[in-house]
Specification:
Length: 107
């Protein structure tokens, strides 16, 4: 099949799917109306009583505990500190690579 034929076929399939969905929707509505009528209600009455959708729950945050005290400080810039936990800061790694002993940077 040529590209043009395939595109026409795709368009026809999409239209057929939309028509099938509309038919199924009408059939479902009729079935729902019939079921509601068996209990003496209309579908509109039941739809008005439908509960509101629940709100999505927010994810919990981790409890905020005390922050760890700094264990190491940059000798070139004492305002740069590190607790010794997590990834090593670039300044710490650079000092160690240049031969500095980590204990000399301990606070």
């Amino acid at each position: 099949m040529s590209r043009k034929d395939l595109e026409k076929l795709l368009s026809d399939v999409k239209k057929a799917l939309q028509a099938a969905q509309a038919r199924e929707r009408r059939a479902a509505r009729k079935a729902a109306q019939k079921a509601a009528a068996e209990y003496g209600f209309s579908l509109n009455e039941l739809a008005d009583e439908a509960p509101a959708p629940k709100k999505a729950k927010k994810p919990r945050k981790a409890p905020a505990g005390p922050k760890s005290k700094p264990q190491f400080a940059n000798p070139e810039n004492p305002s740069q500190t590190w607790t010794g936990k997590g990834r090593q800061p670039n300044w710490f790694r650079a000092q160690v690579e240049n031969g500095a002993d980590p204990e000399t940077m301990r606070v």
